[in-house]
Structure formats: structure tokens, C-alpha cells
Amino acid sequence: MHPLSLRSPAFLLALMLALLSVLFSTAAVAQPSGGRGQIIAPGSPPLTQPMVDRVTTLLGDTVGQPLNAQQRDRLRTIYVGYWRARNQEEMQGMLDLLDVATVLDALPPAQRAAAMQDFRNDFLPLLQEAAQTDADARWLVALHEQSQRGARGRTAGAASAPANVSSSGPANAPAIGQANASSGAQAGGHRAVTGAPPLLPAPPAAAAAPSA
Fold first, then answer.
1. Pick from 16, 17, 29, 21: which is nearest to 111 by CA?
2. Inter-CA distances, 185 with 174, 180, 181, 200, Å
3. pTM of model > 0.90
4. Distance CA 4, CA 206 (A)
């Protein structure tokens, strides 16, 4: 069975936990799984673009990064292939993922985050197991690992950010230059007052005449 529609005890347990969460949530209102939208493959039920979009978003959340247009098109092609082949097992597996997405969408934000983490913890090991023999599973696992490396890199970058430059460092150089310029201006003013030639010290004051 294809991992993008995997049905296993762990997967069904994650779905059951999510369903129980929504049953105990007074604020949650479940929405129909399929929804209305463009039909992209006939069948029972027909496959619509909103169905693919919701499952694609769920898988992006699972691997830890939004999928780009090319990646979303890849998943759309996979699911359209299920419907065109009338592969009932894979179609039902995709509908199971759609049910999970529907339940998560209906939960309040705090409960949604917790339920999503529970689903991720159950689903990622299934992907990693399937990746041993399936190229699409390896692709999703690689996206997850890429997301994890990016998160670790951001954490390491924040931890190694340089501290504020010392007041004796280069940042203080302009102030030193300003002080030198000020001293030079004062010296120039002294030369102007005393009449001394530029760049030469002022002549010493005449010594006082000795008293008689």
C-alpha cells in the first residue's frame, strides 16, 4: 500500500484520537470531508481540488514545511492516478487522510496544535518505514529531514550570535576621530590667536625682566 494513503493500526489510532478530541470539543464543528470544488477525477466519491489541497496541506504540516507548487502538483498527480485506476484501497486511504485534515481544521487552535503533533508522531515512523521501498515516501522523509536541519541551523545561529561590540572596539573609532579633529581645531585656533606659523609651535612668552 502506498504511504501517502497508508492505513495501519497506528494511523487509525491517530485518526481515532483526533476524532475523540473533536467529539469532546464544544467549539468544534465538523465539516464535510469532500467539500465542493473542481472535480479533477471521476469516482465515488469524485476527487476534487479542495480534497487534494487539504491533504497536501496536512502532509506539509506533517513534514514541517509548506509544500511549493511543484511538490503540490506531484501529490495531485499521485491522487488523480488512484482515482483513474479505480484503486479503492488507495482511494480510501487518501480519504482517511482527508478525515484527519477535516477534524484538525475543526479544532480550536490550541487543541489543533496538540492533535497535529500526535498525528505527526504516529505518521512519520510509517513514512520512514515505507521509505525503504517507496520513492514517494523517501521524498517526504527527505523534506522532513530538510526541515529539521533548517530548524537546527536557525537555533545554532541564534545561539552563536555575536555580543555587542566593546566600547574599545572599532565601533568607537568615529568618536576617537572626532576627538582628534576637535583637538586639531583647538590647536589651529591657538595658532591663529598667537600668530604662529602653521604646524609650528607658538613662540615662548618673553621672560620677565629682573627686578632692580
1. 21
2. 16, 9, 6, 15
3. no
4. 101
